[in-house]
From TrEMBL:
Belongs to the class IV-like SAM-binding methyltransferase superfamily. RNA methyltransferase TrmH family. It is found in: Cytoplasm. GO terms for biological process: tRNA nucleoside ribose methylation. The gene is trmJ. GO terms for molecular function: RNA binding; tRNA (cytidine(32)-2'-O)-methyltransferase activity; tRNA (cytidine(32)/uridine(32)-2'-O)-methyltransferase activity. It holds the Pfam family SpoU_methylase. PANTHER family: TRNA (CYTIDINE_URIDINE-2'-O-)-METHYLTRANSFERASE TRMJ, TRNA/RRNA METHYLTRANSFERASE. Keywords: Cytoplasm, Methyltransferase, S-adenosyl-L-methionine, Transferase, tRNA processing. This is tRNA (cytidine/uridine-2'-O-)-methyltransferase TrmJ.
Length: 261
C-alpha cells in the first residue's frame, strides 16, 4: 500500500470566513494541481457562487465535494493534528514552522489520522480563539517589505510542499509517523471534551482562587496538545478528573452539613 497516497488523502484544506468566492475557486484549483482534493469551508460569506466555479478552472469536483461548517471546531472535530497558517507573532503560544517543515509533519501525522491545514480570512486571518484550536502555526516567510499574499497563493504554497513531501516518500525517503507504534492520538473533539471537563474541574477545586482562569487554561491546553495523548490516555485523564470532581462535591456537601449544625 502506498502510505504517501493514503496520508495525502487524509489531509484537508480548511478555509475560514472566506469573503470572496473567487478565492475559494482559486484555492480549489491550487489544491487539485498538487493532488489534494478535500476542502472544508467554515462560514464562507458567499458560496456556492458562479465566481468560485469560474476561478476553479476545472477543479469543479473539489468544489462539489467541499463540506460546509458553521465553526472551525466543527470542521476539524475528527482531526488528530491541525496547523493554522498565520503571520509570525511572538504572542502566539504555538510551535511555528515554515511550510516545508509543516507539510512534512502534516504528512507524517496523516499516517495516524485526519489532518487539517487551516487558512483564515483574507484581511484578518485566524482569530485568537481559532488559533487556540490548532496544534501548530505555519508561517510563510514572504518578503517583509511586501508580505501581502493572496489566500489562494498561500494554499498553493502549502499544497506544493505537501506534494513534494509525498513524492519524497514515494521515492524511498519515507516520512515516518512521529508517533512510532503508539495508538493514534485523540481526535480534536475528544480533546475539546477533555478541556471542557478540565475547566470544570479546576473551578470545582477552586484552583484559580479568584484569578482569571484563561492564562492557566491556555498553558494547560498547550501542554496537552503538545503531548498528543491517545484515546485511552484521554479516557484515563478524564477518569482522574471525574474522581476529582466527585471528591469536590463530597467536600462541599460536608462543608454544608457542618454549616447547618
Amino acid at each position: 500500500m502506498d502510505s504517501a497516497v493514503t496520508a495525502t488523502e487524509r489531509i484537508r484544506i480548511v478555509l475560514v470566513g472566506t469573503q470572496h468566492p473567487g478565492n475559494i475557486g482559486a484555492a480549489a484549483r491550487a489544491m487539485k494541481t498538487m493532488g489534494l482534493s478535500r476542502l472544508a469551508l467554515v462560514a464562507p460569506q458567499r458560496f456556492p457562487h458562479a465566481e468560485a466555479e469560474a476561478m476553479a478552472a476545472g477543479a469543479d469536483d473539489v468544489l462539489a465535494a467541499a463540506t460546509l461548517h458553521d465553526t472551525l471546531a466543527d470542521a476539524i472535530a475528527d482531526c488528530r493534528w491541525v496547523a493554522g497558517c498565520t503571520a509570525r507573532d511572538r504572542r502566539i503560544a504555538l510551535a511555528q514552522s515554515a511550510p516545508r517543515e509543516a507539510a512534512a509533519q502534516a504528512l507524517a501525522r496523516a499516517a495516524d489520522g485526519e489532518v487539517a491545514l487551516v487558512f483564515g480570512r483574507e484581511r484578518t486571518g485566524l482569530e485568537n480563539h481559532e488559533l487556540q484550536l490548532c496544534h501548530a502555526a505555519v508561517h510563510i516567510p514572504a518578503n517583509p517589505e511586501y508580505s501581502s499574499l493572496n489566500l489562494a497563493q498561500a494554499v498553493q504554497v502549502l499544497a506544493y510542499e505537501v506534494r513534494i513531501a509525498a513524492l519524497a516518500g514515494r521515492s524511498g525517503e519515507a516520512v515516518l509517523s512521529p508517533l512510532g507504534h503508539r495508538e493514534p492520538p485523540a481526535s480534536h473533539a475528544q480533546m475539546e471534551g477533555f478541556f471542557g471537563q478540565l475547566a470544570e474541574t479546576l473551578d470545582a477545586i477552586d484552583f484559580h482562587k479568584g484569578r482569571t482562569p484563561d492564562a492557566a487554561l491556555h498553558k494547560l491546553r498547550r501542554l496537552f496538545l503538545r503531548a498528543q495523548p491517545d484515546e485511552r490516555e484521554v479516557r484515563l485523564l478524564r477518569g482522574v478528573l471525574a474522581d476529582a470532581q466527585r471528591m469536590a462535591r463530597l467536600a462541599a456537601a460536608r462543608a454544608d452539613d457542618e454549616d447547618a449544625h
